[in-house]
Amino acid sequence: MKLMKLMKWLIPVAAIAGMSHTAQAETITIAMVNNGDMVRMQKLADDFTSKNPGIDLEWVTLEENILRQRVTTDIATNGGQYDVMTIGTYEVPIWAKQGWLVALDDLGDDYDIDDLLPAIRGGLSMDGSLFAAPFYGESSMVMYRTDLMSKAGLEMPDAPTWSFIADAAHKMTDKANEVYGICLRGKAGWGENMALLTAMSNSFGARWFDENWMPQFDSEAWSETLNFYLNVLKDAGPPGVSSNGFNENLALFQTGKCGMWIDATVAASFVTNPAESQVADKVGFALAPDTGLGKRGNWLWAWSLAVPAGSKKIDAAKKFVAWATNKDYLALVASKEGWANVPPGTRASLYENAEYLAAAPFAQKTLESINAADPNNPTVDPVPYVGVQFVAIPEFQGIATAVGQQFAAALAGQMSAEQALQNAQALTLRQMKKSRYIK
């Protein structure tokens, strides 16, 4: 009798325990770069969890270099530590080819994948499938002082040539008053001076490799690129330019010391913000320059969300990626933070939104700059690689950093352009032979 009563009591308890286990939330781990847009996303994530009560979020927020190291190690070893990764346009084609990323062609009926800007989508796709969903996109363009341009008796074209840029830089320079006609990245690094110079070289008809992976730094086009870069900065650039990267040039421009600055489109919101920039009401925008060969000197980049193949929670991870990169998320940010703070550069519909266009006077040039970049056909002559300001092969980071050191040394006057190019050719050739791209 007592046993029967005990059994009657145990059965509902076991059922309740089973129900509790069934209702337990699934936790996905997100590796995230610590930039402002990503931090804002984390703050707004209650919107996701309220709509997906069966999914909890665990955040791992890291500085860019540390993030790259950790996610690369995890995905290469199929570690499964992360379910969603923040990665860049450089990694996507390499990792997709290795089979390390989950295809994202099924992010929901309301995702509107065709709304993604073609240039951004192309850099994140392989064989027609999307392997990372763009959260934030950028290109590069000319930011210039309208007052100094007018003072020099010039008018900036919407699509200038490099010759015009050189002439304007010379005429806008007033070194006695610490005003320099042009500011460009000089700091060594594959994502610093080589991002600028690689994109710039495309417009001069240069390329990193020919169709057989032979390095091309001994070409006339690379000589023209590097000599132009060195000469214009020597004539019209600020002192110590070989130490200047994005942040240093941003500070120079905001304090009124740059006539022109060619850099990331994301900087436009900083240089036009009266709270941060002394020249906020005197800034104009133009497309990155060309030489008439059909390619402009602008790059293409996106911070994107990807699902590693090693994840055990792929369906939940895809739901999060869809939430963070769809049109509804942009509207959510706008409702909380204003349209000026919406992550830019990913969706065509954003650039058709009157409220956004009114809040961001640089929006149209940003869109035109992104659309002018073609990661699948980045150069005048054919190449075997994908990427505008980078070459999407694993060896590129190391090679380009070493080449960047040679070019920074030439900028600092430690060697000639010819010697820097010879060194670049030799070290790139050595690594490509070592990696068996060529015999």
Q: Which homologous superfamily in CATH is the superfamily of the largest domain?
A: Periplasmic binding protein-like II
Query: First CA to last CA: what distance?
Result: 86 Å
Instruction: Please estimate the helix content.
Output: 40-55%
Number of extended strands: 11
User: Count the helices. How many?
Assistant: 18
Q: What would the CATH topology of the largest domain be? A: D-Maltodextrin-Binding Protein, domain 2
Low-confidence stretches: 1-22
What is the global morphology? globular
The fraction of residues assigned to DSSP E strands is 5-15%
> What is the name of the CATH architecture of the largest domain?
3-Layer(aba) Sandwich
Lateral strand order in the biggest sheet? 2-1-3-11-6
The Cα radius of gyration reads: 25 Å
Instruction: Give the ordered list of helices and strands.
Output: HEHHEHEHHEEEEHHEHHHEHEEHHHHHH
The pLDDT mean sits at 92
What is the domain tally?
2
Structural class: alpha/beta
Quaternary structure classification: single chain
Explain what you see.
Helix 17 packs antiparallel against helix 18. This protein has a 5-stranded mixed sheet. It contains 18 helices and 11 strands. It folds into 2 domains: 173 residues, Periplasmic binding protein-like II (D-Maltodextrin-Binding Protein, domain 2, 3-Layer(aba) Sandwich); 218 residues, Periplasmic binding protein-like II (D-Maltodextrin-Binding Protein, domain 2, 3-Layer(aba) Sandwich), CATH 3.40.190. It starts with a helix and ends in a 5-residue tail after the last helix. The longest helix has 21 residues. The N terminus is likely disordered. By secondary structure, the chain is of the alpha/beta class. Helix content is 44%, strand content 13%. It is globular and about 70 Å long.
